Amino acid sequence: MAERPRGRPRSFDRDAALDRAMRTFWERGYEGASVAELTRVMGIGAPSMYAAFGDKRTLFEECVTAYGERYGGFAARALAEEPTAREAVARVLREAAAEYTAPGRPRGCMIISAAVNYPDAAEDVAQGLRVRRAERVRAFENRIREDVEAGRLPADTDARGLARFVATVVQGMSQQARDGADRETLETVADLALRAWPSAP
């Protein structure tokens, strides 16, 4: 006779609970989302949360990964699919305007805003998000360097500075969205930012 599995089966939808936790972190930030609030919105008790997701930090890391897969992957896709760095950046900014103001979910970017103010105990959380943002800057920089090497951008283009400029615009658009800016307003910001792009040689 086969052994019965130990313990009771989970009585909740793990993916749905993860999505609700992610939206709470996205809206309130890492420090602003208490375990009590997380378990309330997830519809489970603290023991079930710890059993299914680990502690708050582990849950947050899984939420960050889920955010990237579900909502934050538009920049990587644009960089991989567009034929030039300018077209990729134009698409990133255009899609950021849409994504950061999409109805039915928190505004802005979770990776940018989830750990703005934090105590020393959460420094590792903030550092993890900084690493992700730095990776995005490097991705912009690498794409720009490719165009410099291919002659699509002037040889003296400051690839690192230009990448930082793009990242700064994206971060600013995220904060503006959280402050209430609508999609049209952010699209105007995107159009103005593109005017700073170096002209082809």
TrEMBL record:
Q: What sequence ranges are listed for the domain HTH tetR-type?
A: 11-71
Q: Name one GO molecular function term.
A: DNA binding
- Determine the domain of life of the protein's source: Bacteria
Keyword DNA-binding assigned: yes
| Any Pfam family the entry gives | TetR_N
Gene3D superfamilies recorded: Homeodomain-like, Tetracycline Repressor, domain 2
Its keywords, alphabetically, are: DNA-binding, Transcription, Transcription regulation
The cross-references to InterPro entries, in alphabetical order and at most eight, read: DNA-bd_HTH_TetR-type_CS, Homeodomain-like_sf, HTH_TetR, Tet_transcr_reg_TetR-rel_C_sf, TetR_C
The entry's DNA-binding region = 34-53
- The answer to whether the entry has keyword Acetylation is no
**Record-given protein name:** TetR family transcriptional regulator
Q: Which organism is it from?
A: Streptomyces marincola
